[in-house]
């Protein structure tokens, strides 16, 4: 077989595979170029999920005719001269590959004009060939039209997803750029309709509000610095977490990245400060700024992942900063709970409990809340600087008298100081959680042995995961035998799980092992999930009809629970109106 040097058009098409995988990769490269060119107006037009047309118009510097002609050649870049520049690069691009790659797999047209030029330039080519250059009248800036993406490489074209999926990826990508570039306007048109429209704004917060919409009503500010690393941005209030991870935006030096470790750090802060439920995920828009030398953006060809030279420092910075912001949520919760009870005793104790408050910026923050320390909870959820007087003094709740059940969902009660409305499920769940947690803490090593081991079937992937963590699980009291590739035999479990369906419990554990990252406190973390699950499942439901004695029992128990305000999942469990407040409302 004779060795041939591939013609540039073919080698470009091969190289294109690395840069251009889907329509969204084209959009990303073109927007990066527009931003690199200083544009502050960017308009994207898409037809058929980008398969038929991707067009990006910007008002950046534009190119003169000479540069326009060169820009579509491989390794044509204005952004890098020597290899050393790579380590200090501030622009998005530098490889000089994108335009060449895109042009080699599409019907490509570029129209551009600089401020100085009298007339613009148009460069057109198909599949990297038949280059045609001409003068063309244009405004300052650049317009790129990419038609019929992948027409020269049908195999690649056939791998594209349905239009709606490709479109969603593009819209998501534009949101990322928009979040980190508030001063530029972004518009997306899809098949003739405007689907995203973010006019330029003066702050990151305003842009976050444009992009997140309703989810941004109670954003908490995050700001911290450690050495040369700066963190800024927003997280949602704990009660406003989302059911998916799709509203989590993390940027490093302006670039959107996906880093499960850092996302985990943020989630951990929410779990430990607010006890959010397994299926809830914090909404956040966070920006890390650091010396480019500390980040390797080249780890992944599509640059979604980066490598940090100080990962631990960044992890701790994020975790303590988010935790600190969550500590200030009292203003949010006190608006849900406009309570006045216990003003006197709270102000009396103010000094004691600031000193007993554990510092969450120190390393003890990864253990679950200790229910022995009653003041901790107050600090996390009811104590604020300005709103201190607005909070409930939990030691001061006088006895609660049942009034009625409402709609089989709520329990209405009164005390000497006011009216209380409880979410019956959240209330019971909170109490069960505390009870089981204390039980586990006291007797973590009590196990139950089965006369007949339970045999459960799992997929190979699940079995592997359980196998990997078998020794950790054994410390918790689970004894498992791996009898085949798809079954496990369980002969012992912690006694706290008596009467529970093992399958459900193991599913919870698997979920946790799969998604989250196990840290120093693996045992407590796993047990916390298991106990959350158990507390929720056994609790009275929203919609259960309750007997007066049952409700009174819940009310009596409420007075001895330690975290009064929240269910383990971070929702409030009651609303309180003081009589004082009611009198005022009725102008008494
Ligand atoms: P890179 O961005 O890595 O330099 P590209 O292939 O994306 O490589 O672009 C090649 C060159 O074309 C850029 O370095 C820049 O000089 C020029 N260019 C591309 N897009 C634009 C644009 N929208 N406005 C002005 N110049 C552009
Ligand atoms: Mg580029």
Explain this structure to me?
Helix 1 (8-19) packs across helix 4 and helix 6 (163-180) packs antiparallel against helix 7 (204-212). By secondary structure, this protein is α+β, with helices and mostly antiparallel strands. The longest helix is centred in the C-terminal third of the chain and has 19 residues, at 424-442. Strand 16 and strand 17 (410-414) form a beta hairpin. It is 37% helix and 22% strand. Adenosine-5'-diphosphate is lined by residues 29, 33-34, 37, 58, 60-63, 71, 76-79, 93-100, 142.
Summarize this entry quickly.
37% of the residues lie in helices and 22% in strands. It is built from 19 helices and 22 strands. The longest helix has 19 residues, at 424-442.
Distance between the termini: 99 Å
Structural class: alpha+beta
**Strand numbers in spatial order across the main sheet:** 5-4-3-6-2-1-7-8
Number of DSSP-assigned strands: 22
Tertiary shape:
elongated
- Mean of the pLDDT scores? 79
Small molecules bound in the structure, each named once: adenosine-5'-diphosphate, magnesium ion
Strand content: 15-25%
Multimerization status: single chain
Q: Low-confidence parts lasting 5 or more residues at pLDDT below 50?
A: 330-395
Mind summarizing the main beta sheet? 8 strands, mixed
What are its keywords?
588 residues, alpha+beta, 22% strand, binds magnesium ion, 19 helices, binds adenosine-5'-diphosphate, eight-stranded mixed sheet, five-stranded mixed sheet
Give the SSE map.
Blueprint: H1 8-19, H2 23-36, E1 41-47, E2 53-58, H3 65-71, H4 98-104, E3 107-113, E4 120-126, E5 129-136, E6 141-147, H5 154-158, H6 163-180, E7 185-190, E8 193-198, H7 204-212, E9 220-226, E10 229-235, E11 248-252, E12 255-257, H8 260-274, E13 284-289, E14 295-296, E15 307-308, H9 311-327, H10 330-336, H11 343-356, H12 374-382, E16 401-406, E17 410-414, E18 418-423, H13 424-442, E19 447-457, H14 460-468, H15 470-476, E20 479-482, E21 487-494, H16 502-515, H17 522-538, H18 548-558, E22 574-578, H19 579-585
Parallel strand pairs: 1-7, 11-13
Antiparallel strand pairs: 1-2, 2-6, 3-4, 3-6, 4-5, 7-8, 9-10, 10-13, 11-12, 14-15, 16-17, 17-18, 18-22, 19-21, 20-21
């Amino acid at each position: 077989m004779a060795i041939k040097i591939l013609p540039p058009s073919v080698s470009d098409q091969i190289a294109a595979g690395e840069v251009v995988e889907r329509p969204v990769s084209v959009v990303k490269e073109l927007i990066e170029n527009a931003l690199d060119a200083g544009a502050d107006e960017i308009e994207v037009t898409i037809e058929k999920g980008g398969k038929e047309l991707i067009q990006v118009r910007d008002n950046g510097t534009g190119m003169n005719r000479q540069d326009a002609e060169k820009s579509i050649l491989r390794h044509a870049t204005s952004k890098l001269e020597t290899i050393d520049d790579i380590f200090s690069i501030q622009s998005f691009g530098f490889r000089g590959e994108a335009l060449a790659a895109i042009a080699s797999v599409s019907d490509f047209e570029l129209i551009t004009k600089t401020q100085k030029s009298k007339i613009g330039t148009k460069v057109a080519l198909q599949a990297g060939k038949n280059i045609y250059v001409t003068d063309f009248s244009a405004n300052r800036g650049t317009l790129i039209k990419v038609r019929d993406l992948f027409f020269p490489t049908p195999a690649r074209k056939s791998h594209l997803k349905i239009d709606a999926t490709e479109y969603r990826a593009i819209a998501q990508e534009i949101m990322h750029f928009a979040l980190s570039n508030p001063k530029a306007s972004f518009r997306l048109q899809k098949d003739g309709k405007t689907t995203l429209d973010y006019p330029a704004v003066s702050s990151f917060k305003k842009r976050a509000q444009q992009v997140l919409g309703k989810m941004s009503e109670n954003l908490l500010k995050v700001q911290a610095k450690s050495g040369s690393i700066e963190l800024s941005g927003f997280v949602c209030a704990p009660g406003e977490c989302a059911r998916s991870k799709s509203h989590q935006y993390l940027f490093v030096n302006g670039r959107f990245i996906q880093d499960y470790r850092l996302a985990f750090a943020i989630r951990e802060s929410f779990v430990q400060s607010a006890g959010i439920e397994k299926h809830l995920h914090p909404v956040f828009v966070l920006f890390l700024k650091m010396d480019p030398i500390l980040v390797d953006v080249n780890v992944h060809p599509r640059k979604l992942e980066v490598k940090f030279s100080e990962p631990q420092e960044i992890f701790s910075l994020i975790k303590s900063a988010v935790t600190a912001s969550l500590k200030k949520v009292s203003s949010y919760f006190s608006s849900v709970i406009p309570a006045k009870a216990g003003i006197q005793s709270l102000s009396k104790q103010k000094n004691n409990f600031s000193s007993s408050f554990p510092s969450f910026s120190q390393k003890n923050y990864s253990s679950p809340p200790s229910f022995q320390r009653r003041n901790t909870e107050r600090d996390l959820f009811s104590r604020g600087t300005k709103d201190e007087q607005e909070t409930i003094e939990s030691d001061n709740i006088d006895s609660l008298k049942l009034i009625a059940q409402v709609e089989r969902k709520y329990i209405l009660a009164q005390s000497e100081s006011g009216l209380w409305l409880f979410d019956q499920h959240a209330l019971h769940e909170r109490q069960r959680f505390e009870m089981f947690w204390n039980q586990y803490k006291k007797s973590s090593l009590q196990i139950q042995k089965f006369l007949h081991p339970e045999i459960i079937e799992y997929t190979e992937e699940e079995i592997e995961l359980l196998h990997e963590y078998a020794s950790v699980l054994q410390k918790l009291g689970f004894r498992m035998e791996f009898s085949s590739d798809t079954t496990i035999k369980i002969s012992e479990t912690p006694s706290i799980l008596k009467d529970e369906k093992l399958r459900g419990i193991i599913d919870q554990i698997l979920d946790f092992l799969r998604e989250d990252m196990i840290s120093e406190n693996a045992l407590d973390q796993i047990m916390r999930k298991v106990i959350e699950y158990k507390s929720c499942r056994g609790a009275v439901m929203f919609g259960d009809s309750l007997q007066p004695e049952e409700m009174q029992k819940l009310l009596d128990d409420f007075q001895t629970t330690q975290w009064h305000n929240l269910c383990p999942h971070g929702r409030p469990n009651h609303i309180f109106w003081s009589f004082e407040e009611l009198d005022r409302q009725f102008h008494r």
